[in-house]
Amino acid sequence: MSTDDGELEASLEGREEFEPPEAFVEGANVTDEGIYEEFDENWPECWAAAAELLDWYDDYDQVLDDSNEPFYEWFTDGTLNASHNCLDRHVEAGRGEEVAIRWVGEPTDEADRAITYKELRSEVNAFAASLRDLGVGEDDVVTMHMPMIPELPVAMLACARIGAPHSVVFAGFSADALATRMNAADSEYLVTADGYYRRGDPLDHLEKANDGLAGVSHEVSDVVVVDRLGDDGFGHDLADNQHDYASLVSEHEGETVEPVARDAEDMLFLMYTSGTTGEPKGVKHATGGYLSWVSWTSQTVLDVEADDTYFCTADIGWITGHSYIVYGPLALGATTVMYEGTPDFPERDRLWEIVEAYEADQFYTAPTAIRSFMKWGSEYPERHDLSSLRLLGTVGEPINPRPWKWYYQHVGGGECPVVDTWWQTETGGMMVTTLPGIRKMKPGSAGPALPGVDVRILDSAGEQVDPGEAGYLTVHKPWPGMLRTLYKNDERFVEEYWSEYSDEDAGEWVYFPEDGAGIDDEDYITVLGRVDDVMNVSGHRIGTAEVENAIVGVEGVAEAAVVGGEHETKGEAVYAYVTTEEGQEGTDDLRKRAVESVEDAIGPFARPEEVVFTPDLPKTRSGKIMRRLLEDIANDDDLGDTSTLRNPGIVEDIQQHEQATD
Ligand code: PRX
Fold first, then answer.
1. CA triple 369-212-591, angle to 5 deg
2. Which of 474, 515, 535 to mutate to test the pocket of ligand 1 (most atoms within 8 A of CB)?
3. Could you tell me the distance, in angstroms and rounded to a whole number, from the CA of residue 431 to the centre of ligand 1?
4. pLDDT along the chain (662 residues), means of 10
5. Distance between CA atoms of residues 169 and 591, nearest Å
6. Which domains does the chain have, with CATH numbers?
7. Is residue 424 in contact with ligand 1, taking CB distance under 6 Å?
8. What's the rounded Cα separation, in Å, for the pair 235 and 624?
């Protein structure tokens, strides 16, 4: 770090508030602070502003239909098509030669790709025609298990064009996880790839996808395989129902598929996410509300404009990539940057190299990445000219003031606002964050709720907490981007999200996202993290039950309890406490098998940091495992009162076993 940085850092250390930079405010999309009051007074009609960002075939009748709470409907009877909104309307407006996707592969000797709106539209058309030809009809769920290659957004938009919902399964998920998701969605079609590059080496993806397909309990009609690796491929032969992507697209080149008019409430996609039970939840998003929400938040929060180059480092396999790499930026006609690889390959300045090369206007990433950048040092961003950046964003987990300030200073040069955006797979898009041209920033706090979004922090009795107290984050008004239900499970939808704080008799419906939070006297919200049994590991949401199920399935294991422990860069890491069956020792081999089982059931990203063998697990008198206590043990925190345990002596035992493992 140069001396200048040191001085600047020292000067920032005591600062708790940052005003929006003047140069940013001058050109910002939203600068009128009256928007908060206006949206409050004019709710829910205020959300017409979001719908107006889209092209509709049929106008909607009602902004919000709340006659069947909590199954809200937005922009009722309106019809539209997401693929038309992300492609055709820009081409029709004469912007066909503008770059839609700027794709950067991981190998540095491979040419980057610039795909214009016109080119993207024609490939989407050709692939939509291919899917139709294979028999994909409206409302058939098409699963995608794909790395960060342009064919992924092409496939998503092709599905949207023909009204087939997509269900994208992050490429890092295991074969079992893919099969579980295809089974849950009754999905008969899969689009995948032969592989991709990771840290310089080709990685075999098709083998895993094929293993997953073997676990699907219904017949899979067709599989499309993108040849990403070419000569570096692993020589898999395609089965009879497997088709080469490039051949399909060239067969259908030049064909036009009219975008299907979808009802605003028709499903655009499904996304499986982790919950408290081992069974993933199929979050269902609707076409009109979701697309309006991601467009409006991209415009107001990320300040995206049509001539911007916007770079988000998420993976499209998660919700951030859906909303803020694909749908939001493309609906607004911007250039969205997609990068295949990791931030530190071949060197730790790869992302800054990309920002400089394409003069990115916005950069949106996760706190776990920022903590790594900070650890690597400011020399890496300093190697590059990052002056094109106008705004920085963060999402996925709480960010502490120190990494926030590092980001502001070393990436933003003190001239870009930082938006800390709180939201979830279920909310579709952002909910709590500062509006960058209006509100001051307070590092560590995401900010106030967006205009028209009613977030309150309640205590367990349902009363609003005082400023400075911690409580539970709750949402008191519906919003267009909200999930509509859990796929084929309305009951679980109501139970999971609407049962904790709603008063059904009084007709008061309150959405509970399962996050803890505090609020200050200016309504700035500090999100503390999940209050259910869900961990947040490097911004990835992982259910403790999913990991426990995988470990308990290992021969020789009797019981397992999994908790998230604090971790310097990952935010949280997976800690597993395991008891063995009679006669089975806690050996290195058993530990290895437990770890492998988690990788097989979920994926390497869920791998336990530590597997601690212990003679017993701490339990209450009624036999419930005391996870909270295990969390305190993992974090070396004060354990408080342990006398209510059925087996209080176990605590010391576990601590000793843990030291032995360290
Ligand atoms: O705990 C919150 C945390 O991430 C959870 C949602 O995870 P997922 O559905 O995978 O979506 C991640 C990307 C939107 C939330 O329940 N979270 C997300 N953003 C923030 C956050 N925690 C604190 N601050 C944030 N900005």
1. 65
2. 515
3. 11
4. 57 89 97 98 98 98 98 98 99 98 97 98 98 98 98 99 98 98 98 97 98 98 98 96 98 98 98 90 98 99 98 98 98 98 97 98 98 97 98 97 97 98 98 98 98 98 96 98 98 96 94 97 96 93 95 96 94 96 95 98 96 93 87 87 83 82 65
5. 28
6. 114-260 (3.40.50.980), 534-661 (3.30.300.30)
7. yes
8. 50
